[in-house]
Input
Amino acid sequence: MEEEQNEQKHEEHHEHNEVSKQKKSFAEWYEKNYKLLLIIPLILILFGIIYQINFYNQYGDIIRKDISLTGGTSVTIYQNFDTSNLISDLSGKLNEVDVKIIYNIITGENKAVIIETKSDSETTKKVLEEYVGYELTDENSSFEFSGSTLSEGFYKQLVIAIIFAFLLMAIVVFVIFRTFAPSTAVIISAFADIFMTLVTVNVLGMKISSAGIVAFLMLIGYSVDTDILLTTRMLKRKDDKLNERIIGAIKTGLTMTLTSLFAVLAALFIIKSFSPVLSQIFIIISIGLTFDIFNTYVTNISLLKWYMEKKGLK
Amino acid sequence: MKIIPTLTWRIWLLIIIILLSFLAIFGFPPTFTQKGIIITSVEPNTTAFNEGLRTGQKIISVDGIPINTLEDYTKIILDKFPSDEKQKITIGTSDAQFILFTEAAPEITISNIPKTNIKTGLDLTGGSRAIVQAKDKKLTTSEVNDLVDITRNRINVYGISDVKVVPISDLEGNHFMLVEVAGATPQDLKNLISQQGKFEAKIGNDTVFIGGNKDIQSVCSSPQCSGIRSCDRTTENTYACNFFFSIFLSEEAASRHATITGKLGRNSNSTLQGRYLDKNLDLYLDGKLVDSLLISEDLKGSTTQQIQISGSGNGANQADAFDDAESSMKNLQTVLKTGSLPFELEIVKLDTVSPTLGSEFIKIILYASLAAIVVVFLVIFVRYRNLKASIALLITSICEIIIILGIAALLSWNLDLPSIAGIIATIGTGIDDLVILIDESKHSRNLSLKQRMKRAFAIILAAYFTSALSLLPLWWAGAGLLKGFVFTTLIGITSGVLITRPAFADFLKRTENKL
Output
């Protein structure tokens, strides 16, 4: 036991030397260029804004919404049948058809087919019964229908909830740090996370469900904690040099984000065969966490370092 | 070296809360050790009901034969009641014996005793959910409450068990009625909750009486004065069955009947069966003619209070026609009893979820959580090379899930998909906080460990408040359908900050001090 510990300490020491060498040359480069690094998020955000403006002009909204937000019917049929021509066969009869498949993750065998359409549930039922050739009962199928007014209201309120959530988060951040610039840096980087995730989701062509919007809400919490850690370590601690504190914060923060990211990816791997709803949550969080790494350690650090340099805080 | 380190009060607190959570989840004595099946509903005014069988009782034997599963029960009952003969049946529950003399199977619904007290939502167990709103009208709070009352009445008349009818509202101030039925969906649920139920009995253009307790004193549904009278083949492929039932009018409605019939003349084409007035009593339900009744001549001008309502049902064979007539009769009786709603309704959301994949879904979710936890363990172990801390982190994370499930079981919260997403979110933030604790404990060794932990908690609390506050708006958004997410996440992160994460910090302190 003790031997092991000594070895560990020795290793740590060795590592420390190696790292400190690398640290030095990197630190020099970083010292000179950290403000330039801000160009990357700036370009990404600018690209995002242009993309979103185009997107809005094309679709009339900032995301592609699935039927849980536009209204329509989602039918799950618990039988295996040929779905290769399903979309083309149904497209004339139902409004905007989408097909997803639930399969057994080990055998790959199809367990159920999910059909989503903007048509109402009665029409959908009739058309699908004709297609599969048997009656759809609550033994062999599930129907979920949402009226368009309700769904649109739902969407509007979820967007309001996200805006409120973001504002509340911003207020808490201001209360914690009580200084304008560092708080703003945290908020900007949280915003950048969410915005970049939104653009990515659109670029990937994903249709967002109500659960997907909840995932965006979860991102607020996930992205802010590493920023708070970073800002606390940089601003409130005086025991090490600034760059050392930054490195420490990066180590902790990266462990946090990477652990969450790997955990989410592992869960996604299993759940994607089964639940499109949970899968979407996990996909959005994975994208968000990836941007969080970038925004915390590029955007937020650079902004905060800039501020501290200007104020002469080191 | 002590094998079991002395535990701090925080760690004791965690252990006690975990034990309490297990108690909440499994009950005492644990539900999975209990034998028998549970009664989920008893039809009122039946032999079973009158003998004292009630919802919630556990049947452990029938005629002395022990019952462990639904199949045991069904088999005995099927063997016992092949014919309509009156028989004695002894039902033993966990605390009493009930002896029934009956010609048919007891009118109760039963299910296996659930293994835990955790309730799962419709999207996992199956069932139906409807959200109802007035057509072209914004409902006020009191209107929704009235609607909920009437709907509860209607559902009681139908004897559907396990139904939740509640008013809900959203951020924009819209009020809705939410109806949730667990398990199989009654065929006519849609009809039952969305029909306005505006009943009118008219002679010509004059309304004699309408549904509801102002005009109608009582509606008979006992076999003496209601039932299916006759079934006939009407055409090659259709059958029709006629139903009838008596109602008793209020005095006011009866005198209205007298005034209106007093003005009528005699029908010149009176049949052999009797002489009738020249106009019929037309029964309308939601503007549609249900039936048109001939009025016997001797009722002219009379203030009769008892009136017989009739109608018919159709079907491709006699059994279908009979069922149709029976359900039309029940429907009509319901609206006559409960009265109509002052507005037309619209179902804005209707989900009927099959329970087919539910149990498999729960399995997949468990696998996914397990995979996530194992990955977390591996990443943390690779990062810190500290087995003890990694295992402690793993245990802490599992404890947080147990506490969420315990509180959910205690409050009978239905765990639906959003709730499960919330549990996963908690695992995520939990791990983040634990990593902060490990790192802060290793950091700045010139400070005392206590100070280092204090610093760590400053960050954890800051993160907690941002997450907790940013969740709140979701509670009210979208008619509360995503409440589950807020519920589990809030419980998870709060118990995390108050109980599990401090215990973890104490554990770190102890192992740290020993090094």
Notes: The longest strand of chain B covers residues 239-249. Chain B touches chain A through 79 residues (CB under 8 Å). The two ends of chain B are 12 Å apart (CA to CA).
